[in-house]
Amino acid sequence: MTQNQYDYIIIGAGHNGLVAAAYLAKQGKKVLVLERRDIVGGQVVTESFGDGFTVDSLHAGGTLRPDIIKDLKLGLDTPTATRPPFISLQADGNHLVLDSDPAKAAESINRFSEADAANWKPFLDFMDKASRFMHLANETIMPRLPKNFSLAEGYGLAELGLDLRLLGGKDMMRVIRGIPMTAEEFVDEWFESDVVKAAVASLGIHGITLGPMGAGTGYTLMHNWANRG
Q: What count of other Cβ atoms lies within 10 Å of the Cβ of residue 186?
């Protein structure tokens, strides 16, 4: 192999390109990453646009999957207590503040609905389970179908099915039903206040061109929830 020969060429040194390159390099592949800008990181970059004007990227709410952080020894951690609250601004100034502390979030929700405040902790418990399953699904290497299928490749898929079953019958069905749902249908099953429902459903349409009544935005809601930690 000459100096200018590579096993893989990756276009773009954003976080996805860098992760892919790192995993390929760990497998002993020779990788070339090309980036047109003089800064790498893509949408996870914090950069300066002038004196006193430093901003985060457009999608700063997401995080790398825990298994990626561990595999690549990145040493990153975002303690829950340090995460800023999710604030839904209201025209009358009575803003909904979804703090990372469930008790504080419930206090804010209680101003809009006592029932929704009571449902907040059970909802968080379910979303934690759904997030763990989303991470497991992302970690699973799917078998090559329909050709070259082997039992060894199918083992990961079978294990994922077991992980889904271990959620328990009720939560397993909630995850399965939630994937094709609209974000509107998803939040309707948990909350009664339009303010609370709109705030939670907004995660289902972040970064895409669908609205909250778009099929599959229930999955996007769970995916984005997991991605934000």
A: 26
Contacts with 173 (C-beta within 8 Å, 6 or more apart), sequence order? none
| Beta strands 31-34; 8-11: pairing state | parallel
The more confident residue out of 86 and 108 is 108
Q: What is the pLDDT of residues 115-131, one digit of tens each?
A: 999 999 999 999 999 99
* C-alpha–C-alpha distance, residues 55 and 58, integer Å: 9
pTM: 0.76
Please give the distance of CA 6 from its chain centroid, rounded to a whole number: 32
Beta strands in the chain (DSSP E): 8-11, 31-34, 47-48, 54-55, 86-88, 96-98
Q: What residues pair up with 41 in beta bridges, in sequence order?
A: 14
Angle between helices 217-227 and 194-201 (to 10 degrees): 70
